[in-house]
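REVIEWER CHECKLIST
Item 1: Sequence provided? yes
Item 2: Single chain? yes
Item 3: Sequence as submitted:
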Amino acid sequence: MPTLNNQRDDLFFMRFALQEAQKAADIDEVPIGAVIVKDNQIIAKAHNLRETLQDATAHAELLAIRKACEVLGTWRLIGCSLYVTLEPCPMCAGAIILSRVDRVVFGAKDPKGGACGSIVNLPADKRFNHRPEIVEGVLADECGDILKKFFKSKRYRASE
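Item 4: Structure as written out by the authors:
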């Protein structure tokens, strides 16, 4: 059961992930944002850059993981929590497991591509040697709304 402090921290840090998602929306990227926290400090922030970089792997989570590894000087993100506005996909869930992130907190579920419970649950698979804690639904409405607004705008522009 999450403690009150964890819940407050989760809300606090998810708001930073939402700010990153807005940065993505501002440059016409799918608005997903991520932050990585260690010892109650943000050590990495990122947002989707797939279109900007023309790179299928430029998801917010992967970019944040790369930055956190650089900051810490190690590929092992032990003691870190990842906050992301949308449930991680299989690629990102794999990177989370491999980088040893301790905790993943996400906002909106992804019924079409989520790999932390929606379609599959990679982090819960006991065959892996690392299983991060998963917390879902933190600021889920806000995280879902930014995505809905983005795609509604895309459909509107496409119909003009």
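Item 5: Key structural point noted by reviewer: The first helix runs from residue 4 to 26.
Item 6: Recommendation: ____
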